[in-house]
Design a protein that fits this description.
Layout (H helix, E strand, L loop, with lengths): L1 E2 L17 E11 L18 E6 L5 E5 L5 E7 L5 E9 L6 E8 L5 E2 L2 E2 L30 E7 L5 E8 L5
Parallel strand pairs: 2-8, 2-9
Antiparallel strand pairs: 1-2, 2-5, 3-4, 3-6, 6-7, 10-11
Length: 171
C-alpha cells in the first residue's frame, strides 16, 4: 500500500514528481488467553496495549495501540527489494512485555501478528466471612472467619493452583 500527504497547487500546468514510500500493513489482536485454547474471544481482549515496531535498517519506530477488541493496525515501510526487518515489542500495564523479530515480505496478503499476553502477579484482597443471609455481601452483623485453604476457580470451573489463607479476622 502506498500513501503520501501533500498539498499541490494545480492552477497552472504543473509537472509533479511524487516520491512514494512503500508501506506494508501489519495488524493483529492482543489478548490474554484465559482458557488456553489459543483463540482470542470475548472477555480476553487486551485494551491499550502498545505495539511497537523498530526498523532494523534505520531505527525508526512505529507504534499502534490496541482498541476495545484488542485490534491494532499500522503501516511499515519496506525497501526497494520489497522486504523489511523489524524488532517488535509489546507492552501493557499488568502484563509481561513481549519481543519478536519480524521479517516482512511484500505479497498479495498483509501480515497478521497476534500477541498472547501473560499477566503479571495479581494481588487479591478481601475478607472471608460466613454469609448468614446469603446476599453475597458482608453485613455489619457478619464477622470475618479464618480459613486455612482458599482455592480459586476460573470461568470454565477449573481449579487453578493458587492457594491462599485468611487470618482470624478473615483478611
Amino acid at each position: 500500500e502506498y500513501y503520501r500527504n501533500m498539498t499541490v497547487n494545480l492552477t497552472r500546468d504543473t509537472t509533479l514528481l511524487i516520491p512514494v514510500e512503500r508501506r506494508f500493513a501489519v495488524s493483529g489482536v492482543v489478548y490474554w488467553d484465559k482458557n488456553s485454547d489459543k483463540v482470542s474471544q470475548t472477555g480476553e481482549y487486551v485494551v491499550n496495549a502498545t505495539v511497537s515496531f523498530v526498523s532494523k535498517s534505520d531505527g525508526r519506530t512505529y507504534n499502534a495501540t490496541s482498541n476495545s477488541l484488542g485490534n491494532y493496525r499500522l503501516y511499515l515501510p519496506v525497501d526497494n527489494k520489497t522486504t523489511g526487518k523489524f524488532d517488535a515489542n509489546l507492552s501493557c500495564a499488568g502484563f509481561t512485555p513481549k519481543k519478536a523479530t519480524v521479517p516482512l515480505n511484500v505479497s498479495a496478503q498483509n501480515k497478521t501478528l497476534d500477541w498472547v499476553l501473560t499477566p503479571n502477579n495479581v494481588t487479591l484482597m478481601g475478607t472471608t466471612f460466613l454469609d448468614l443471609n446469603g446476599n453475597g455481601a458482608m453485613n455489619r452483623y457478619e464477622r470475618g472467619v479464618p480459613v486455612a485453604h482458599i482455592e480459586f476457580w476460573d470461568q470454565t470451573n477449573v481449579s487453578r493452583a493458587f492457594e491462599a489463607s485468611s487470618d482470624i479476622n478473615g483478611s
